[in-house]
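Quick one, tokens below. Sequence please?
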């Protein structure tokens, strides 16, 4: 895995972001201008590098949110041919951005987990499957949960998963909807106030 950072300059208008990549193959550094930063907290591009084209390499990619156009859009620079693609999907105001290879075709799918107005509202997952272009929806978790998607059952497909924090010092739990069996499992792990490292893959 290559080391990557993204650098932006604070400004009143969108500024160009630069990706600094240190290649694991030879240790050389690469700088790639891609994406923008905005004037507000949510008026910017959020990094979501994944392998969207299925060539075995992560693509430089962002999710554009806020007032920037085109808003609520995945913008991907494919490593296979350097082509830039745009896919509107989700709404950053209400959604977590949760890309993963949910259909097991070797390409990451554009996906979001939508929260409701109150903590106990169901969380609804929306997945644009790269294998057939169809959108799949699934209710899993509640709005106060944090997505922790990943391949927990080892079948090469991302599982919908959430971390449900307990009260301060109380038991926390990971819940996983296993794609292999389509059944839910729970693991008691962590206490309220802990940081669930598995949330690294959600925005």
């Amino acid at each position: 895995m290559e080391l990557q950072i993204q650098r932006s300059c604070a400004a009143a208008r969108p500024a160009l972001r630069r990706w600094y990549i240190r290649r694991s193959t030879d240790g050389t550094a690469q700088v790639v201008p891609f994406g923008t930063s905005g004037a507000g907290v949510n008026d910017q591009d959020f990094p979501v590098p994944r392998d969207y084209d299925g060539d075995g390499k992560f693509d430089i990619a962002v999710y554009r949110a806020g007032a920037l156009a085109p808003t609520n859009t995945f913008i991907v620079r494919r490593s296979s041919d350097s082509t830039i693609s745009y896919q509107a999907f989700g709404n950053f105001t209400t959604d977590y951005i949760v890309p993963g290879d949910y259909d097991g075709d070797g390409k990451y799918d554009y996906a979001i987990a939508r929260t409701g107005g109150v903590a106990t509202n169901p969380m609804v997952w929306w997945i644009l499957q790269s294998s057939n272009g169809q959108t799949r929806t699934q209710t899993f978790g509640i709005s106060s949960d944090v997505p922790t998607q990943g391949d927990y059952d080892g079948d090469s497909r991302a599982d919908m998963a959430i971390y449900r924090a307990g009260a301060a010092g109380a038991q926390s739990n990971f819940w996983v909807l296993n794609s292999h069996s389509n059944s839910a499992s729970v693991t008691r792990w962590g206490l309220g106030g802990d940081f669930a490292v598995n949330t690294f893959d959600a925005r």
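The mean pLDDT is 92. The longest strand covers residues 29-37.
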